Amino acid sequence: MNKRVKILKTEILSDAYYTLKKVSFSYRRSDGKVEMVSREVFERGNGAALLLYHEVKNTVILTKQFRVPAYLNGHESGFLIEVCAGMIDEGNPEETIKREAMEETGYQVSNVRKVFEAYSSPGAVTEKMHFFVASYEEHMKMEDGGGKDDEQEDIELLEVSIDEAMGMVYAGEIQDVKTILLLQHYALKLAGSPSPKW
Ligand SMILES: Nc1nc2c(ncn2[C@@H]2O[C@H](COP(=O)(O)OP(=O)(O)O[C@H]3O[C@H](CO)[C@@H](O)[C@H](O)[C@@H]3O)[C@@H](O)[C@H]2O)c(=O)[nH]1
Ligand SMILES: [Mg+2]
């Protein structure tokens, strides 16, 4: 509860699939002055993302799929390389990401480890992402993956070395923020670095 903020009005501008709202509120500034503010807020639910890494081969499993918002905003092909991720609709973040791992990559992972939570675009979108890592081995591959046809998902899978993946970040070939975050987490905490204090 924030005593400096009072939500006064919430209008729904669109609720076709997700919900776009216009929120009007009074806000007491740090200098004490109270002003009226209006902001549009996109409600898209919350999400979970998972980096699948192989402890012996030092490889990661990534997905590649067409993302129309990125395409509209200058990405040449619109095919983005990402970690496995999905929206949390049923169940908790951990259950969701295990289900998404199976649907998108075909790997059945039991031990996922939560690394952090973060708002993906807090000035505009309510979405909070839950970030996980899990190690994979060949015997965990149960299905082809590739996403759900009935949800019009068409996901290609990539298995690349962690060095190659980091190179792709700096070459601009990986441009998805949740993926960059998890790869950097791997590089900092999991790639045989001396134990960090944080
Ligand atoms: N009809 C319709 N269906 C939609 C729409 N938007 C999404 N969907 C359906 O919802 C599914 C969402 O698939 P998920 O795997 O759960 O989510 P995602 O698209 O991979 O999104 C993940 O990454 C996003 C970008 O980082 C995150 O924003 C999101 O929370 C999640 O982590 C899509 O395949 C599609 O079937 C829409 O506007 N209209
Ligand atoms: Mg997905």
TrEMBL record:
Belongs to the Nudix hydrolase family. NudK subfamily. Residues 43-182 form the Nudix hydrolase domain. It catalyses: GDP-alpha-D-mannose + H2O = alpha-D-mannose 1-phosphate + GMP + 2 H(+). The lineage of its organism: Bacteria, Pseudomonadati, Bacteroidota, Cytophagia, Cytophagales. InterPro entries: NDP_pyrophosphatase (IPR004385), NUDIX_hydrolase-like_dom_sf (IPR015797), NUDIX_hydrolase_dom (IPR000086). Mg(2+) 1 binds at A85, E153. This is GDP-mannose pyrophosphatase. Homodimer.
